[in-house]
Amino acid sequence: MTERLAVDIGGTFVDAIFFNREMGEISVEKASTTPDEPESGVLTSIEKVGANLRNAEAFVHGTTLGLNAVLERDGATTGIITNDGFRDVYEIGRTNTERESMYDIRYQKPESLVARRRRVGVPGRLNADGEEVEPLDEDAVRDAAAYLVEERDVDGIAVCFLHSYRNPDHERQAAEIVRDAYPDVSVSISSAITREYREYERTSTAVMDAYIKPIFETYIKNLDAALADRGFDAPFFVTRSGGGTLTAESATDAPVHTILSGPAGGLIGASHVGRETGRENLITVDMGGTSLDACVIEDGMPAVKYDSRLEHQPLMIPVYDIRTIGAGGGSIAWLDGELLKVGPRSAGADPGPVAYGRGGTEPTVTDAAVALGYIDPDDFLGGEMELDAAGARESIEEALADPLDSSVTDVSRGVFDVALANTVGAIREITIEKGLDPREFSMMAFGGAGPMFVPLLAREMGVDEVVVPEAPSVFSAMGMLMADVVYDFARTNIAALSDLELLDVETTFEELDAEAIETLTAEGFEEREIDLEHTLEMRYLGQEHTVEVDANSIASIDEVSDRFERKHEDRYGHAMDDPPEVVHQRVRAIGRNDKPPLEREEPVDASYEPVETRDAYCFAVGERTAFDVYDRGDLRPGASINGPAVVREPTTTIVFHSDQTATVDEYGQLVISRGEA
Questions:
Q1: What are the tens digits of pLDDT across the range 24-81?
Q2: Are 11 and 348 in contact (CB under 8 A)?
Q3: For a FRET experiment, which of 391, 459, 513, 652 has its CA 20 to 30 Å from that of 208?
Q4: CA–centroid distance for 255 within its chain
């Protein structure tokens, strides 16, 4: 068993990549996403890539199923069981208004995922130290479950009690009661997802888990059975939102950890490739059919945060700090009066852009790319799909150009300009607003539309270098092949640093380490294959939010204080005289997997002639001009090409302009730089 397979479901396409370790061969394919039956698109992509599931040693999967359920408000009917008198914690929240709506007098709070009639309080209480003050009323839990299931028709129940991060016994007890009474109803308990304080955030996280759990369980069960029918009998992993993978069984226990699993694959791959090729500071831009995802990788590691939000709902799980905007290839271009806008609505996979000829009527970014000459309508997806170029231009003319009294070319350029402006704003949030200069980073472009769009983005932001890895259109799936198995463990223990002994900190880490090692050894890892990373979340007394401090190899409490002050000064530009305190202790447990090697090839001194010339729009000169067209498979390391040019692959198109140059490095990556060769 020497073959590994990874499949990533996006909003428009399913990407499959197949790696034969013995032969060192990689195959990639795309299939259309099938929203009504997502496992069907996965199986089609596996068939197209030619993988023999009987020989597979592992299958790694990334899916947007949970994310789409939340975005489309199409999850399970969910109920909440909590402490008596606290049923409204979830709705009251922090009573804050979203930042972008702070001064909007018409602002309306988004509808809650769980209506008040589906929230029930039961007697039972723990104090802040986790000690039982009042026993859990088991009969009340049974009655609450009966009410929610039989009268409110819930499919999933979230259980969150006060201070259960200290002592999860009441939550576990309640879950057992509900499961015994209603085995077909899924149950999510907050302490099984996160052992951290903040009741509202823990409740929201448990609700999100319960909201997607029945859908996710059904999907994974159906996919697992279909794979088994085709001879697959090896580990099945799902990518985590915060990096790494976890087993499909663990993913169904807490599917909220996979809610951003698709975009995470690309970051795993980018950080690995960046470290291997000497580019440890990257801005990754993954532009697919539905959305664009951007993230910063600094010193070889993507930024991770533990307090994210999704659709106004807080999540207390580790996730990559990704900015997502509706600027994919399928994003619809439309007019708001005389103002041209792009997204967030998308044509998706069905019907897709007008050029796909599947019934789409509204122009998209892809249609604009066809009109500008970047995409060859006769060679889309390696010739598998013929595009309707005339239909794309006609839709742009009718919907955009005529109302604006403009030309198809000018409006299509405008579509790209708007998408650029949206993307620049998203990247500023994760760079400039955090004290980082994007000009000091390289950009890595992947996704089906990324190699076409990101060289323009680099020009706009003054970034000197864009890296296009091999197989960029399926790079997220490629990253999944490089993923390790990862679990996170945490404890809340708020204490002034001056009141702690080093032994106190070490004892808690030892407890978390033991839990981590037990989890990974149960999944077949030997201790030599396990890495443990320790961090402390700290703040000054009186502060609300924390900074993450490296806690590996600590020699003294004074060293902890020094590390915290340096990190605070790096983040905020100053240190303070107030006493520091520890809030959380975290352990990230990593079970190392074998990864596909990056093949290195010595540069070859050779010249290359274009296979054809194409008329397309050059942003550097502001008009249509002749673009040389090359096949990427013909370009060897050392190749250098002046723009404007198009480099085509079977599943994507790379476009750069007359003030840019592309070279192929020793790893086969196409590196696009400013200036001529």
A1: 677 888 888 887 788 898 999 888 888 888 888 889 998 877 877 887 788 899 999 9
A2: yes
A3: 513
A4: 14
Cα–Cα distance for residue pair 651/666, rounded to 1 Å = 22
Provide the percentage of residues in the chain whose pLDDT is more than 70: 99
Q: CB–CB of 581/494 below 8 Å?
A: yes
Q: Please give the Cα distance from 154 to 80 (Å, whole number).
A: 10
CA 381 to chain CA mean position, Å: 24
Query: Phi and psi dihedrals of 459, rounded to 5?
Result: -60, -45
Question: Collapsing DSSP states into helix, strand and coil, what is residue 76?
Answer: coil
Q: Do the beta carbons of residue 597 and residue 538 sit within 8 Å?
A: no
Over residues 193-221, the mean pLDDT reads: 92
**CB-based contact 625:645 (threshold 8 Å):** no
pTM of the model: 0.81
CA distance 269 to 263: 11
Q: What is the DSSP letter of 403?
A: H
User: Which SS3 state, helix, strand or coil, does residue 468 take?
Assistant: strand
Contact predicate 320/243, CB 8 Å:
yes
- Strands 645-648 and 653-656: what pairing? antiparallel
Kindly give, in sequence order, each residue whose CB lies less than 8 Å from that of residue 25, ignoring residues fewer than 6 positions away.
19
Would you state the pLDDT for residue 676? 62
Tokens 């402006």 appear where?
A: 421
- By C-alpha distance, which of 49, 24, 123 is closest to 81? 123
Helices (H) and strands (E) in the chain, counts: 17, 35
